[in-house]
Amino acid sequence: MSDLGALLRKAREERGLSLEDVQESTKIRKRYLEAIENGDHSILPGTFYLRAFVKNYCEAVGLDADEVLRLYQHEVPASVTDQIVEKPAAARAPRRVQTQSSERISKLGFNVLMWSFLILIVVVVWVYFVNQQGNDTKEIDQTNITDEASQAPSPTTDSSNGAGTNSPSATPSPTPSEPTSVTFTAKKGKVDHYDVAPAGTVHKLEIKISGGKVWMEVRKGSDKGEQLMSGNVEDGQVISYDITEPLYVNVGRADLSVISVDGITVNDGDQARSKKVLLNPVQGAGAGADANASPTPSASADTTAQ
Fold it and tell me: Are 56 and 88 within 8 A, CB to CB?
């Protein structure tokens, strides 16, 4: 046994520690500790590890490691001549590699999430603008809506006694009134313009709400004209006006409202968006003398203009 080994064993025994206790506190294998106490340094990995093991042993048993290494430097030389084949810190390398790998995966996941979010926003905005452009540029076909009402004249015959023969006598039938027609003429901005014919007839505008509450307004002449009504109309109610001058109609939901003139439905697109129409009565001989459009209460429901 070397002097250094005897010193370390004495210090250990004075503290009441076994080699297993020192092994637990220093993480040095028991066989290396026994070799250090016995002075058999040949089984140790090298001089570097010998000095490190002796220093840790000294600290475990309460000795001054630097002083012990200085006093017993003949047993533990300061120069390192053996190649270091293993480092205690190498055991920590996998943890570092694992940490770097986790950070790299986290960054990659964050970047993928951000790019996916940006791409989703771009797609939503593009779809929105495409739909808006399609709705704004869609042509409204010119629509002629007419009532087909005809009255067939009934021929009559008059018999004469003098000649003993029947001679037909034509009885003139009353001239049938011209049917109402609602004709699309132009689209100015977002307002569809319709001509209501024939002239000289007081036509009736009806707006029926079906499917839910709808906001609407009616004005004289244009969207800047005198306001006849503005507000919400309940489901099932009908608003009606006599058309004696141009009437501007704006409904908040075209799919929940039906606009008609003398029973003829006006094409409002039937979409879940607002619709604006201007109904212009055709002027001519015998046109109505009343210059104001007056609201007529509907038989199906009462509506209070707000």
Answer: no
CA distance 130 to 182: 32
Q: How far is CA 244 from the centre of its chain?
A: 46
* Cβ-contact 216, 257 below 8 angstroms: yes
Neighbours of 46 (CB within 10 A): 16
Determine how many CB atoms are found less than 10 A away from the CB of residue 110.
10
* Domain boundary, last residue among 40, 69, 84: 84
Number of domains in the chain: 2
Flag whether 93 is in a domain. Answer: no
- Tell me if 74 is assigned to some domain: yes
pLDDT of residue 95: 60
Mean pLDDT by 10 residues, the chain (306 residues): 82 88 88 84 79 87 85 69 45 60 86 94 94 69 47 47 47 67 92 91 91 92 92 93 93 91 88 90 59 38 35
Q: Is position 119 within any domain?
A: no
- Containing structural domain, residue 70: 3-84
pTM score: 0.38
